[in-house]
Write a structure and sequence with these properties.
Leucine-rich repeat, LRR (right-handed beta-alpha superhelix), 416 residues
């Protein structure tokens, strides 16, 4: 670690040298960082996200970033940088790419929901071909499109340091997903990837077939997000066939697809033999009671590895929900379950109320809480879930990092 500089003083001096006005938001964050007594031993993440404030703040611009990296070049103890929800463009991406090529300490970089496009993606992907320190990159919501995604796929064939890559909501397409699947047959370092909401115009599920083929040979990937892929039962069957041969994947996200009970039948058969999966997200599909019963049967007798299950908004009635509640009384490994958005009846409310009141199901591990009206039990919604902190995290430390977010609590891919 280098000698600790005064970040705020260096920032003021850099603004003067570059004739750039100070951004009061950045100045305040740097002042707070200077007061942190642990930066010399643990390193710090500068939280400059533009959406975490009750009072509006001036968001970080390309020019602001140019000044900031001048300061961070002398601050080896800054190991994380959160620039989400700002107004960075391809010019800012160029500045960041240069910084990544020269910086040897940054491990976490969050650029989600800025205005970075294809050319900016090319610069950042190019920098990561040489960078050997960055562990976690979030590009979520930047419209890098198919071409930008292809450049990240090419980077994955070379980079052996990156562990987590988030390309969700980036408008990538079929060619990008196929290229990433091919790259991950060779890459041995990536442990988590988010490919949610690509722009796919085919109904043939070619991308799912390629991803399934990759899972047969990949032995390092632990977390895979395939939400909003338009996936149907055919795609689920291909994934399940591949996962019989895969012993590394622990978190599978199939949320917001077109999966019915027939597709869940394949998942149920997989769970009877697979002892690796720990988190299964089926949020916003249509598995109904038959699908819920398939899952409950597999979890009741056969599976003892799954720890978290999300079946939010799946048109499940009391019959399927009660079956899963019954399963939890015997399967002690299943600790997190999310059920809101289904059709609760009296028996559902009673069963889940008993699970919570007896301590079998903790309130932090589900998205419902019981209450009574005139002696009758009902369930209220809690704002918990597998993806609670995927797009937003509280700016203070009042909430534990893993609270109500099983993906963070159970599968800690890295310190970030």
């Amino acid at each position: 670690m280098s000698v600790l500089p005064d970040l705020h003083l260096h920032y003021v001096q850099a603004c003067q040298n570059l004739s750039q006005p100070e951004n009061p938001f950045i100045a305040r964050v740097l002042q707070e960082a200077d007061k942190n007594d642990e930066i010399s031993t643990k390193g710090i993440t500068l939280k400059l996200a533009g959406n975490n404030h009750l009072v509006p703040v001036p968001r970080v611009t390309d020019d602001d970033l140019g000044v900031l990296v001048c300061v961070l070049g002398q601050a080896a103890f800054v190991t994380g940088l959160d620039l989400a929800y700002n107004v960075l463009t391809d010019a800012g991406a160029k500045t960041m790419a240069t910084f990544l090529q020269e910086n040897s300490t940054l491990r976490y970089l969050n650029l989600m929901f800025n205005d970075i496009g294809t050319s900016g993606a090319e610069l950042i992907a190019g920098a990561l071909r040489r960078n050997e320190t960055l562990v976690h990159l979030r590009m979520t919501g930047n419209k890098i499109e198919n071409q930008g995604g292809m450049l990240f796929a090419s980077m994955l064939k070379v980079n052996s340091t990156l562990e987590k890559l988030d390309l969700g909501d980036c408008d990538v397409g079929l060619k990008c997903l196929v290229a990433i699947a091919i790259a991950l047959t060779q890459n041995k370092s990536l442990k988590a990837i988010n490919l949610n909401r690509p722009l796919l115009y085919s109904q043939q599920e070619e991308t799912t077939v390629h991803i399934a083929r990759m899972l047969r040979s990949n032995s390092s990937l632990m977390e895979l997000h395939l939400g909003k892929h338009g996936m149907k039962n055919f795609g689920v069957e291909r994934l399940c066939e591949a996962l019989y041969e895969n012993s590394s994947l622990r978190y599978l996200d199939l949320s917001c697809n077109n999966i019915t009970c027939d597709g869940v039948k394949f998942l149920g058969e997989l769970l009877k033999k697979n002892q690796t999966l720990e988190i299964l997200d089926l949020n916003a599909n249509r598995i109904e009671d038959v699908g819920a019963i398939y899952l409950s049967e597999a979890l009741l007798t056969w599976n003892r590895s799954l720890q978290a299950l999300s079946i939010v908004s799946n048109n499940i009635t009391g019959k399927g929900l009660v079956a899963l509640a019954h399963t939890m009384q015997f399967n002690m490994q299943l600790s997190h379950i999310y059920i809101w958005g289904n059709k609760f009846d009296k028996n559902t409310c009673v069963e889940f109320s008993e699970l919570i009141e007896t301590g079998r199901l903790q309130l932090g591990c589900t998205d419902v809480a019981p209450y009574k009206v005139d002696g009758e039990v009902f369930l209220a919604e809690l704002s918990h879930g597998l993806a609670k902190h995927r797009y937003w995290a509280p700016p203070c430390a009042a909430v534990a990092p893993g609270a109500a977010d099983a993906s963070l609590e159970i599968v800690a891919v890295s310190e970030y």
